[in-house]
Amino acid sequence: MGYVIAFMVLPVAIIATYSFFQRGQYGGIVYSLTLDNFARALDSLYVGILGTSVALSSTVTLLALLIGFPTALAITKLQPQHQNIALVLVILPFWTNFLIRTYAWIVLLSSEGLLNQGLLGLGIISDPLALLYTPGAVVMGLLYAYLPLMVLPIYAALSRIDPSLREAAIDLGASRFTALRQVVFPLAIPGTLVGCVFVFVPSVGNFIVPELLGGGKTVMVGNLIRDQFLKARDWPFGSVLAIAMVVMLVLLFALQARITKRVLGQG
Amino acid sequence: MTVLLDIHNVSKAFDQLAALDNVSLQIHTNEFFAILGPSGSGKTTLLRALAGFESLDSGQIVLDGQDVADVPPNERPVNLMFQSYALFPHMTVFDNVAYGLRREKRPQGEIAERVTSLLATVGLGDMATRRTHQLSGGQKQRVALARAIVKRPKILLLDEPLSALDRKVREDMQLELKRLQHEVGITFVVVTHDQEEAMSMADRIAVMDQGRVEQVATPVELYKNPGNPFVANFIGTSTLLRGHLSSGRLHLTNGVKVPCSLPSEDGAEIWLMLRPEDISQTPAGAITGTVISTNFYGPNCLVVAECGLEIPVKYLVGNSEVPRVGDATKISWAGDTGVVVRAS
Amino acid sequence: MTGVGKLGWVLAAVCFFLYAPIAIVIVMSFNASKIPFQWTGFSTKWYSELFANASVLEGLRNSLIVGVSTMILSVVLGVLLAIGITRHSTSSAVQALALAPAIIPDLALAIGLLALFSAISFPLGLTTVILSHTIFCMAFVAAIARGRILQIDPALEEAALDLGDTPRGVFFRVTVPSLMPAIIAGALLAFTLSFDEFVITFFTNGPSTPTLPIVIYSMVRFGVTPEINALASLVLLFSVAIVLISQRSVKLSQSI
Ligand SMILES: Nc1ncnc2c1ncn2[C@@H]1O[C@H](COP(=O)(O)OP(=O)(O)OP(=O)(O)O)[C@@H](O)[C@H]1O
Ligand SMILES: [Mg+2]
């Protein structure tokens, strides 16, 4: 069944190699190899967009971590049969339509939206707040979309930790919190980093949320790539940005693997 | 002998199941105490209750005159060596052993000195900087032991400390545990389901079954005078026969009457426990049976024969007189051998 | 046990965060008012209007065509892929590569595919969408099937061969039936993924064959309407139902 493998891997391989080829070769412009596209990516305009994307995605990742870790920890404390239910509850929204989940936040955040209506009704504010079309709305939308991707790997990491390790720490004189800090946290680092990569990477590449919740005012790398392909029709440059995104993913995973090795030794 | 640990009428149930059922035990200072019982008999639950990880439904645990009910596990002067060792994989051997001392906020110098000398004692002097996954099973076991001992607890609790080791290492470690206990002068409470291990190491043994303590005694006493049929069956190899005692003769359930001069009241229903060496195979034997299996043990052979009694009879013969499976056999025993075990 | 209590609140709060926005959309879809944010009474009229909306129906039709085709293709290919990588390859690089489309950012995959189709001058349309969806859906199917294959005792197949079955017969009479729970779960998963997929469709689709997510996208860009609420509710419930069914069959596959 060797041919099966070849057949399956081929499309994947083509894409991988293609994204490296195309930089000077396709896009209807030039067929000669050039590094100009890479140089262009260092232009201050694009560096600025990259900076915004990284800043927003980092915020999203940090928030997802701060919410996701206690959530995952809470799930591990449930009884086994309840753990499965809680996991399904957390993941379920992730399997539903992304556009609709983003749309729900328009309903909540727009100036006639429910949040403003509620605050007005309670007399807390007198004029509607500009909630939608802000970087904050983008962060909220991305957090909402990708929180399950943080909870899942952290839960997997926590549930693999032998509970007797925590008890051993307590037996040796550590308080509950010290045991959590010195034994559970370090051992959960690998899974936590996976969660961070899982949230960070799609956040950087997302163009729907910045468009729908950021109103086009917050431009992220994802929007830039999309525009290079569908509007500016500058495919080589768009490819450079996309390759940068994939390279970043690979680098982040490599970093994750390194840190994991540091924490747990080679084991 | 002073009582260090007084376990008084302790009960603990999981859902409906009584894991500990009215357990009472007294453990003395500097004793090597073993808790022996089949799987699921509540041994681990008892140890975890002593360490503070299991709350009690009722009863008290008094350590050195103090009821420890309200003392959280991290403040009990008791340390537990986990069945799985529970070594911290993200720390070196040294850091694992130093963990408890650091929680006591001991000075650096003292920690280094105590850890180093203890590692040397358990034969791991040159392994201090290793990660735990770089150790063999026996080495892991020593680290776990050192980590639990280094705080000099009043009692060291060991949950099946040797069960993960292969036979040869296990025998070495049994001797070493004894030696170490002598050296550090700490009371050891060892849980095991291996009776040979308990017999060879412990000063006294508590036999547990289904959450109850069946008997507490020295190894010799347990072997010679089991307190009830369960202990008689569990400790060593034996044949337990039920019978009715009447004017110096025991009426067995197959109708055969054998002489019995053991001290017991006339007319009583008793259990007679016979060790394999108590029974001999002789043409003059009053009891006849059929051999169903033969098992060689060094110079002797353990023969199992069906004699129409409650259970097949087990007895030893020399290697020159081994019957064949299916042969008819005749056996007997002297009227003053065996032990009368009262039904509980 | 106050720690557990506090963590319990965290869990409840997170579930509220995850479900409240969705719940609000569903509630709003039954609002009689044309102004989306004022509740004037219960009504199902937006649902009936939805079913009269030609572009929605067109999108639904296209999405179903793509979803079912993708499901069939990705199950067949995904299962073969899973058998290939678990039974016939010891290289972890091959395994990682085969499952890669499930992990790499959808945008990168989308433009890679767009570039590929342009390079070979393949006209964009439902066919390209189906092919593209298949590439990443089969990676998910393969991941599920692989988990199941690793559980199955390889001696099962050897036993069947030993009893005189042909390799081909073994495949259809032993391998496929024992993979059945994973196949069902994978099929349902592939269908939902394809049905809800937007980014890859956005890049690899032609202009004349919009799928439902493309229709939703163009509607959503013009703001909040009760009709979108109704459409969103239906799509949500549909996905949830399929995911729950596939969860059940995964559980089934674990219990067998
Ligand atoms: N956390 C728990 N929840 C429910 N039941 C438990 C729990 N811990 C133990 N039990 C039950 O209590 C009984 C005693 O268990 P325990 O672990 O003390 O046995 P053990 O004597 O240590 O057995 P082993 O030799 O197999 O380790 C068993 O029937 C077990 O199933
Ligand atoms: Mg146990």
List the helices and strands and how they pair.
The complex is a heterotrimer of chains A (267), B (344) and C (256).
Chain A: H1 2-25, H2 36-41, H3 44-76, H4 80-91, H5 98-109, H6 114-121, H7 135-160, H8 163-171, H9 176-205, H10 208-212, H11 221-230, H12 235-264
Chain B: E1 3-14, E2 17-28, E3 32-36, H1 43-51, E4 58-63, E5 66-67, E6 78-81, H2 93-103, H3 108-121, H4 137-149, E7 155-159, H5 167-184, E8 187-192, H6 195-201, E9 204-209, E10 212-217, H7 219-224, H8 229-234, E11 239-246, E12 249-252, E13 257-259, E14 269-274, E15 280-281, E16 287-297, E17 300-306, E18 313-318, E19 328-332, E20 339-341
Parallel strand pairs in B: 3-8, 3-9, 6-7, 7-8
Antiparallel strand pairs in B: 1-2, 1-4, 4-5, 9-10, 11-12, 11-14, 12-13, 14-20, 15-19, 16-17, 16-19, 17-18
Helix pairs in contact in B: 2-3, 2-4
Chain C: H1 2-28, H2 45-50, H3 54-87, H4 92-99, H5 106-119, H6 126-151, H7 155-162, H8 167-196, H9 199-204, H10 212-220, H11 226-255
The complex binds adenosine-5'-triphosphate (ATP) and magnesium ion.
Features:
heterotrimer, A: 267 residues, mainly alpha, MetI-like fold, 77% helix, C: 256 residues, 0% strand, binds adenosine-5'-triphosphate, binds magnesium ion
Describe the structure.
The complex is a heterotrimer of chains A (267), B (344) and C (256). Chain A is mainly α and 267 residues long. Chain A has a single domain, classed as Orthogonal Bundle (MetI-like fold). In chain A, 77% of the residues lie in helices and 0% in strands. Chain A has twelve helices and no strands. In chain A, helix 3 packs across helix 7, helix 9 runs antiparallel to helix 12 and helix 11 runs antiparallel to helix 12. The longest helix of chain A has 33 residues. The N terminus of chain A is likely disordered. Chain B folds into two domains: 222 residues, Rossmann fold; 106 residues, OB fold (Dihydrolipoamide Acetyltransferase, E2P). Chain B is built from eight helices and 20 strands. In chain B, the strands form four sheets. In chain B, strands 6-7-8-3-9-10 form a six-stranded mixed β-sheet, with helices on both faces. In chain B, strands 13-12-11-14-20 form a five-stranded antiparallel β-sheet. A five-stranded antiparallel β-sheet of chain B has the order 15-19-16-17-18, with no helix packed on it. The mean pLDDT of chain B is 90. With 256 residues, chain C is an all-alpha fold. Chain C has a single domain, classed as MetI-like fold. In chain C, helix 1 crosses helix 11 and helix 3 runs parallel beside helix 6. The radius of gyration of chain C is 22 Å and the shape is globular. The structure holds adenosine-5'-triphosphate and magnesium ion. Magnesium ion binds next to helix 1 of chain B.
